[in-house]
Design brief:
- The chain has 165 residues and is α/β, with parallel strands linked by helices.
- It has a seven-stranded mixed beta sheet, covered by helices on one side.
- A hairpin with a 4-residue loop joins β6 and β7.
């Protein structure tokens, strides 16, 4: 069963009662540093469940683990942004709509390492969390920009869930 909950109307205890098998921290508008309750919820479940963070979810996961974010001069908007997978070297065309980015210099390499980089400007586009079933992407894999270039990320997340069962 998939249950969708909004972070502004549910408590940590209520989430625990749902006994989630995994968490997806979805995209959303806003300044990432204004999402205090979301960061607290993420801290509570980090390392206990598989987590996939997308766009704002990527930024919130980074904040929850001690990294920092910054405002981009123009932001990334549109469906044609090349992102490089740092593990395979493959470049994917992604869809993006955000004005903030994770500062990779603020990462503790014992906690998270860059997984994707924006080919245009070198900004961070995703993180792999060390020793945890957590990964995040700044772009929108659900948007299927070129066609379905990033849909494999959902397969990766489902595999993470199978490992924890």
């Amino acid at each position: 069963d998939i249950k969708v909950v909004r972070n502004d109307c549910i408590t940590i205890k209520e989430i625990e009662k749902l006994s989630p098998q995994a968490i997806i921290i979805s995209p959303g508008p806003g300044y990432p540093k204004d999402a205090g309750i979301s960061v607290e919820i993420i801290k509570r479940f980090s390392g206990k469940l598989p987590i996939l963070g997308i766009c704002l979810g990527h930024q919130l996961m980074a904040l929850a683990t001690g990294a920092d974010t910054f405002k981009l001069k123009y932001g990334h908007r549109g469906g044609n942004h090349p992102v490089k997978d740092m593990e395979t070297g493959r470049v994917y065309i992604s869809s993006q709509n955000h004005g903030y980015a994770v500062n990779p210099e603020s990462l503790d390499p014992k906690v998270a390492v860059p997984a994707f980089t924006n080919v245009n400007d070198g900004t961070n586009e995703g993180l792999k969390y060390v020793g945890k079933n957590i990964f995040t992407v700044q772009y929108h894999p659900e948007a299927c920009s070129g066609p379905q270039d990033s849909s494999y990320l959902f397969d990766r997340f489902l595999q993470m869930m199978e490992v924890t069962e």
